[in-house]
Specification:
single chain, about 850 residues, alpha+beta, D-amino Acid Aminotransferase, Chain A, domain 1, OB fold (Dihydrolipoamide Acetyltransferase, E2P), eight-stranded antiparallel barrel, 44 strands, about 15% helix, globular, nucleotide-binding, transferase, DNA recombination, DNA-binding, metal-binding
């Protein structure tokens, strides 16, 4: 059974897709007359998570202007032993690859859709032949999926469905399902929470080169006269390597920025600051002139290679001496070419054209190569080789003068330009520099950056002396007072000599101190190409992205909940996937943990303090925090959370205060617990009545399910009153409810007192009392989860355990808005409410 476009070779493309949808109602995209590839030259793939009548995953591969599509009920899996059913469905338009939204009820595919993964794919062999034969092997480059995969048709001619199997091929990316379940580990939309390519986050060998060579697309080029001037695009220092987007990665060259302007065959070499250096490098100008250029602007960097590595010191020696023949001009961008302004053309296309122009370039003109290996792997290699770092540029970026976020520089060492503000003499004698006094600008004001006293030889020390003494001034040029005592103690009084801030030094150093000066600095050279006014403090070294926490689960197969079959591995993975959501509710709050070492059907026990069983990562606080009690525990990190889950913790219950202000609660909680015979609708009504009374008292409240039978109404407070006052308010509030509506509410504990009523528990507001935290699982059959919800959702809730440890994370992956987003800023006072209740 060979597949065809829409199954019928006589039907127009995407006809089945069109017939199934009413584009006046559904937000799904209608096919355009001419669909365009997401990334020219590199076909896209997308996996959309679709919660329709049931949850499934739509797997799509771009081919011949459409998205070949399969519905995969269980989703993809990295375990080659797991063969996942994939139903071949109608082709979708390329525009569908970015679709997220809600398909209305009673329409085809009604339900919520998110983009679960996206990227590019490479067929192994001919994709069209593979589809016809029913065996398609391909490589994925996604944010969650990578490596070799295979789709195999298993249906026979005449079958109602075109059934295939999707499975992972054995390679470096294959992993047993028991070790890693990508569906549970990474459930969210990659548009809401971009991850970047998994091959860069977790490199496992070099990323394979792109198999297709893209045709140069200059469609965005504009016919325009050659610009007389052009300011270069500048990169922003990256605090960490990017984890999202498609980036071109080059080595960061240790040299001087140099632009070339070619006008009717005449070449000018221009520095970043706009100086004409053509006369300095006539050989380079001659080689640029020999390129096939009538009119052009090019961008690059000049440097000198020493043992194959760019050397800034060697470049300075070459510029100042007779070794100019060692200077190499690396070109990395082309902004204008023979009557066309290319600045709006995507970077990959500009570079592709530039590479073609440089194929027969002279000895000293080179193309700045980019690398297909993962950025983390390249960064490690660059650091090991002693390179300054990497340049990362968005593949689709336009060329913009000035500093931008589409060009990033990743530094493997702390290094930057600093303004020379003064100097001292070596040994106190004139003739050679002993140290340089440095500065940088903050909001236009020059401030002290410390000093550097190493990194030059005697010849350089004399040269610096010759350059600086004509610039001497009577006073320090700093606009911000110099903090001298600690850093200047080794100098004799008056040994510093100040200069006008006109020269710039390149300095490498170990770190910035807390007051903003360099530590253990070493001089690398003068930056005669950069003006001092633009020297500002940059950040620290670029850090590679943090690896995801590794889960080491003992007895992962142990069943925690016999009623559902939830295992210990399932529970630990749930907490791993929910960590960023639950931690704000746990951090710095003393807690009690419900542990189930033999499962929730066996005896449970509470743990509030540090005991014999160690849980690495949990914080045990000083006994002085709560005298006469054992040390309190808090869960403040992912490590602590997973450590507790690994030690069979099922529930996390927290105090109403933090360790910072232990005696001052920052919330009051009303636990709505239905008595015998109370239907769920009565619990919903009770919550609305509680909210209404709180609103009358001027208090805003937030709602969450308890994970059990009831609901929690939470009122955030400014931590001003003590526990006694807050508990007294909650007791008065509940008694008022029970007195006003006695047929609905009970303020008295005990099963016999709440038959047919909702008991509102105020006792949880006392010192040392706890309540199940938001997102905590519960040690009850089904393992419900305490889920934050909006008041608008209340009527749609089916129970207090609507979401479980099996379903909660999937539900959250489709939520675009946090219903508790404003909770954290709503610190309210109880003073007025207390008076109104009296």
């Amino acid at each position: 059974m060979a597949p065809t476009r829409d199954r019928d070779p006589q039907s127009p493309p995407l006809s089945r897709y069109r017939k199934k949808r009413d584009f006046g109602v559904t937000p799904e995209p209608a096919p355009l007359a001419a669909s365009q590839s997401v990334e020219p030259g590199h076909p896209a793939f997308v996996v959309q998570k679709h919660w329709a009548s049931r949850l499934h995953y739509d797997f799509r591969l771009e081919l011949d202007g459409v998205l070949l599509s399969w519905a995969v009920p269980k989703g993809p899996c990295y375990d080659p032993k797991e063969k996942r059913m994939a139903i071949h469905v109608e082709d979708h338009p390329v525009e569908y690859s970015s679709f997220e939204g809600t398909i209305p009820p009673r329409h085809y595919g009604a339900g919520d859709v998110i983009v679960w993964d996206r990227g590019t794919w490479e067929p192994v062999g001919d994709a069209r032949e593979g589809m016809a034969a029913g065996k398609l092997v391909f490589r994925l480059h996604g944010e969650k999926l990578a490596g070799l995969w295979e789709l195999v048709r298993i249906s026979k001619p005449g079958d109602k469905q075109d059934q295939w199997m999707l499975f992972k091929k054995r390679d470096a990316w294959a992993q047993p399902l028991a070790q890693y379940d990508v569906i549970k580990a990474l459930p969210d939309s990659v548009t809401v929470k971009p991850l970047g390519l998994v091959e860069e986050r977790e490199p496992r060998g070099a990323r394979p080169a792109r198999s297709a060579t893209p045709q140069v697309d200059l469609g965005a080029a504009v016919t325009a006269p050659l610009p007389a001037k052009l300011e270069p695009q500048l990169a922003t220092l990256a605090a960490s390597l990017p984890t999202s987007g498609d980036w071109i990665t080059e080595a960061k060259l240790d040299g001087y920025r140099m632009l070339s302007r070619v006008a009717k065959g005449q070449v000018r070499l221009i520095t970043r600051g706009g100086q004409d250096w053509t006369a300095k490098f006539p050989e380079l100008a001659t080689e640029v002139r020999a390129l096939a250029l009538d009119n052009a602007w090019l961008d690059g960097e000049i440097t000198v290679l020493k043992n194959g590595i760019p050397s800034f010191a060697a470049l300075q020696d070459a510029i100042d001496g007779a070794a100019r023949q060692d200077i190499v001009y690396f070109l990395f961008d082309l902004m204008y070419f023979n009557g066309k302004d290319l600045r709006k053309v995507p970077l990959w296309a500009r570079r592709a054209l530039l590479a073609q122009l440089l194929e027969n370039a002279g000895e000293h003109i080179r193309f700045s190569q980019d690398f297909e290996a993962p950025a983390t792997q390249l960064f490690e290699a660059a650091s090991g080789l002693g390179l300054e770092g990497l340049m990362l540029k968005r593949r689709d970026a336009t060329y913009e003068s000035g500093r931008t976020q589409t060009w990033l520089k990743a530094k493997s060492r702390l290094r930057q330009e600093l303004v020379i503000c003064g100097f001292t003499a070596r040994g106190g004698k004139d003739g050679e520099i002993g140290s340089l006094l440095l500065g940088y600008y903050v909001d236009g004001k020059l401030r002290d950056a410390g000093s550097v006293g190493t990194g030059w030889d005697a010849r350089t020390a004399r040269d610096l002396w010759t350059r600086l003494t004509p610039l001497e001034a009577d006073a320090a040029p700093f606009d911000v007072d110099v903090a001298r005592p600690r850093r200047w103690s080794r100098r004799s009084a008056g040994s510093e000599r100040w200069v006008r801030p006109e020269l710039v030094a390149e300095v490498e150093f170990a770190d910035w101190t807390a007051d903003g000066v360099v530590r253990h600095a070493s001089f690398r050279g003068l930056r005669i190409d950069k003006p001092p006014g633009g020297v500002i403090r940059e950040g620290g070294k670029t850090q590679p992205p943090d690896p995801q926490p590794k889960l080491k689960i003992t007895h992962p197969e142990r069943v925690v909940d016999p009623s559902t079959g939830i295992t210990k591995a399932d529970l630990v993975r749930y907490y791993a996937s929910i960590a960023e959501r639950i931690l704000p509710h746990l951090k710095a709050r003393p807690l009690a943990m419900v542990r189930a070492p033999d499962g929730i059907a066996e005896p449970l026990f509470f743990q509030k303090h540090a005991e014999r069983t160690a849980m690495p990562g949990l914080t045990a606080h000083d006994r002085a925090l709560w005298p006469k009690h054992p040390p309190l525990l808090t869960v403040d990190t992912v490590e602590a959370l997973l450590s507790a889950a690994q030690m069979n913790v099922v529930e996390f219950h927290t105090w109403n205060s933090t360790v910072r202000r232990l005696d001052k609660p920052d919330r009051v909680i009303f636990d709505l617990d239905p008595g015998e015979g109370v239907k769920w609708g009565r619990v919903q009504e009770a919550a609305l009545l509680v909210q209404a009374l709180l609103s009358e008292l001027g208090l805003q409240a937030w709602l969450k399910t308890s994970g059990g039978k009831g609901l929690h109404v939470v009122v955030p407070l400014a931590p001003r009153l003590g526990y006694e006052a807050v508990k007294a308010f909650s007791q008065a509030f509940v008694r008022h409810l029970a007195k006003t509506i006695p047929e609905r509410f009970s303020a008295t504990a005990g099963a016999s007192n709440r038959i047919g009523k909702v008991y509102v528990d105020y006792l949880r507001n006392g010192m040392g009392q706890t309540t199940a935290a938001a997102f905590s699982a519960r040690a009850r059959a089904g393992m419900g989860v305490s889920m934050p919800v909006s008041w608008e959702q209340l009527n749609d809730l089916k129970s207090g355990a609507q979401w479980t440890a099996q379903t909660a994370r999937e539900y959250l992956s489709f939520q675009q808005r946090d219903p508790w987003a404003d909770y954290w800023a709503a610190a309210q006072s109880l003073a007025s409410a207390i008076k109104r209740l009296e």
